[in-house]
């Protein structure tokens, strides 16, 4: 190591010069990181407010105990402010529904409408103008304008233009349904 006129090692006089650009870059990067963190902190309450509240999330799915619904009985529950019919179909009706496509108004195979042939799960609103149909032995009857549906919820007679609407659901167990989640 050589020594300068001041008596200090030469390297001392030069130490700062090569470091200047590195230090500037470091300060710039640090400023960016701090600014980014500040933006995230400032906007987080806003972003967080856009997520659905936990009570809204819980209402988007409804768990239903189906263990007490006897064969031939319908249980009506509310899901997303709509009635949902959960119909425990008797064996005698299942094969009849499986052998039919419904009517020409909205033909559909029964197997496309049920996950388990014993259980029909449909939105309980007439697809004409939204009245609540009443259960009959052959299916459902809408008292508003006389539409009829079979035990697969398929429209047999108008003015309803569509079958009773399906909804996402899953069997959590043999005795529990979760509505609102496929
Ligand atoms: S609302 Fe059901 S037939 Fe019109």
TrEMBL record:
Family per similarity comment: Belongs to the Rieske iron-sulfur protein family.
GO cellular component: plasma membrane
A Pfam family of this chain: Rieske
The reaction(s) this protein catalyses: a quinol + 2 Fe(III)-[cytochrome c](out) = a quinone + 2 Fe(II)-[cytochrome c](out) + 2 H(+)(out)
Location(s) in or outside the cell: Cell membrane
Enzyme's top EC category: translocase
Record membrane topology: Single-pass membrane protein
Biological classification of the source: unclassified sequences, metagenomes, ecological metagenomes
Keywords carried by this UniProt record: 2Fe-2S, Cell membrane, Disulfide bond, Electron transport, Iron, Iron-sulfur, Membrane, Metal-binding, Oxidoreductase, Translocase, Transmembrane, Transmembrane helix, Transport
Cofactor(s) the protein needs: [2Fe-2S] cluster
Protein name per its UniProtKB record: Ubiquinol-cytochrome c reductase iron-sulfur subunit
One example GO MF annotation: metal ion binding
Record-annotated Rieske domain positions: 113-178
E.C. no: 7.1.1.8
Function: Component of the ubiquinol-cytochrome c reductase complex (complex III or cytochrome b-c1 complex), which is a respiratory chain that generates an electrochemical potential coupled to ATP synthesis.
Record text on subunit structure and interactions: The main subunits of complex b-c1 are: cytochrome b, cytochrome c1 and the Rieske protein.
Region (Disordered): 1-22
SUPFAM superfamilies noted in UniProt: ISP domain
């Amino acid at each position: 190591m050589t020594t300068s006129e001041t008596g200090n090692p030469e390297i001392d006089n030069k130490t700062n010069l090569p470091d200047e650009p590195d230090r500037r870059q470091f300060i710039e990067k640090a400023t960016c990181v701090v600014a980014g963190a500040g933006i995230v902190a400032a906007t987080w309450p806003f972003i967080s407010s856009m997520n659905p509240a936990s009570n809204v999330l819980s209402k988007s799915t409804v768990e239903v105990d189906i263990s007490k619904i006897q064969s031939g009985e319908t249980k009506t529950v509310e899901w997303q402010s709509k009635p949902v019919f959960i119909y425990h179909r008797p064996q005698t009706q299942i094969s009849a529904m499986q052998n039919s496509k419904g009517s020409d108004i909205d033909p559909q195979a029964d197997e496309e409408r049920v996950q388990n042939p014993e259980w029909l799960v449909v939105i309980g609103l007439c697809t004409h103008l939204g009245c609540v149909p009443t259960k009959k032995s052959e299916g459902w009857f809408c008292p508003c304008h006389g539409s009829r549906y079979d035990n697969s919820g398929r429209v047999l007679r108008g003015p309803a233009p569509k079958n009773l609407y399906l909804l996402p659901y899953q069997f959590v167990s043999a005795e529990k349904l979760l509505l609102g989640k496929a």
